[in-house]
Amino acid sequence: MLWRMVRAKLAARAGDTGTAERLVEEALVLAREADSPALEAGVRMAAADVQLVLGRPDMAEPPLREALRLSIEKGDVVSARRAETRLAAIAAGGSPQP
Asked: Whole-angstrom Cα distance, residue 55 to residue 50?
């Protein structure tokens, strides 16, 4: 799963949107199948990173919100804070660095 997210970010940086999005979807399916909220939250944060690299901060918000929800449910304060910080930067009109 991790390699898919790394390759998705690399594909996004290379402008290969289709490959980046396909790899993100594959990683999300695997994370859901693993039934691990912490793992899924991490994949969703990485999915948001891909959207940011592609220059689509508006599309980074949904996976960040879901990562925030999962992190809060799991009690992962650090990951929740990271998601909140990125969401705040997007809301302020910025694009946080992935």
From this structure: 9
For residues 55 and 79, give the distance between their C-alpha atoms in angstroms, rounded to a whole number: 23
Q: Which of 32, 35, 7, 31 is nearest to 21 (CA)?
A: 7
Alpha-carbon radius of gyration of the chain: 13
Q: At 12, give phi and psi (nearest 5°).
A: -60, -45
Question: Alpha-carbon distance 22 to 15, whole Å?
Answer: 13
Q: Are 64 and 48 in contact, with CB atoms under 8 Å apart?
A: yes
What is the helix (H) or strand (E) element at residue 60, kind and residue range? helix 57-74
pLDDT digits (tens, 9 = 90+) for 23-52: 999 999 999 999 999 999 999 999 999 999
pTM of the model: 0.88
What's the confidence (pLDDT) of residue 57? 93
